[in-house]
């Protein structure tokens, strides 16, 4: 996929509107992880270096219902962005017509405070466009949304992809089109229904497909095994059976799991083979034998993509499988790509963020891209 880039825009002396993804986690009003903010800085800095008269940044935060809600204000993000840029960043309120603050970098208040944002309303897009002469999309985490600040606005101004968006598309395109082999995809998480489209598309290109997390129990059930009280999506069994037939011996499933009576710390846990899960227990992590097999597959790869934890890693009793996979991905020799909020959180928890080649800023967008979907925010920037 070829996108228009900053090299295709003349920004000197012009106002640039940048759609960033500053949707970061907050705890009691304070930013608990500024990764996405840090990733937005290079594009803003580059626009200023190229002579932009002003950079107006816009983003969403959380899911407000189209009205102002103080807990979703971008005020703390403006402060942190200013610290990272080394300059004052004023926060301008909605509607956009009120964005008259001085300064060469301005952050617009949460665009989802405007009801027209999530409706991809052309009128709201025109209000945003009035603030600028050119538009730059750098919000990979939002390009799968047909929202006004992502899709509609790109038709109103000369537009291009920012540095982060360009890199995300190049990295993920490589996973689908030209990965160094062997290529291993590790996919986990709770619901297989969320990832069947991705799994189907990955099977076109991967050499090994490794399955973990609660979604593995739907696979095991489809194989005819009893999985106790583990999560199973019965309506997906036929699709999973078809996928397993297509994958053949490229598919790796758990051979042992950690089971317990409840999903909480401190309860008695047991490691059992997948063919001996007690009827009154549920699985909450992959077992040691499985973790070793998965890490062996990862270490033999030249390209690894990981999306989704192997178990309930937030609880120390069920973190071992995810920790082992995180270490395998981060410390191996393969080109490594990690995406999805839980997987990124696991990297943070276990201290491996700096050891991965590319950590994607988009969870849902990454999955839809790897599924082969035409994402609205990218379609608007595509060349040809």
What structural keywords apply?
12 helices, Rossmann fold, 6-stranded parallel sheet, alpha/beta, 384 residues, 2 domains, elongated
Please sum up the structure shown:
The chain has two domains: 6-167, Rossmann fold (3-Layer(aba) Sandwich), CATH 3.40.50.1260; 179-371, Phosphoglycerate kinase, N-terminal domain (Rossmann fold), CATH 3.40.50.1260.
Oligomer: single chain
Strand sequence of the main sheet, in spatial order? Answer: 5-6-4-1-7-8
Question: What is the count of helical runs?
Answer: 12
Return the CATH architecture of the largest domain.
Answer: 3-Layer(aba) Sandwich
Instruction: Sketch the topology as an H/E string, one letter per element.
Output: EEEHEHEEHEEHEHEHHEEEEHEHEHEHH
By CATH's scheme, which homologous superfamily of the largest domain applies? Phosphoglycerate kinase, N-terminal domain
Structural class computed from helices and strand pairing: alpha/beta
The outline comes out as elongated
CATH class of the largest domain: Alpha Beta
Low-confidence stretches: none
Sheet with the most strands, sense and barrel status: 6 strands, parallel
* Overall pLDDT metric: 95
- Taken as a percent bin, the fraction of beta residues is 15-25%
As a percent range, the share of helical residues equals 25-40%
Q: How many β-strand runs? A: 17
- At CATH level 3, the topology of the largest domain is Rossmann fold
Domain module count: 2
**What is the first-to-last residue Cα distance?**
10 Å
Rg over CA atoms, rounded to whole Å, is: 22 Å
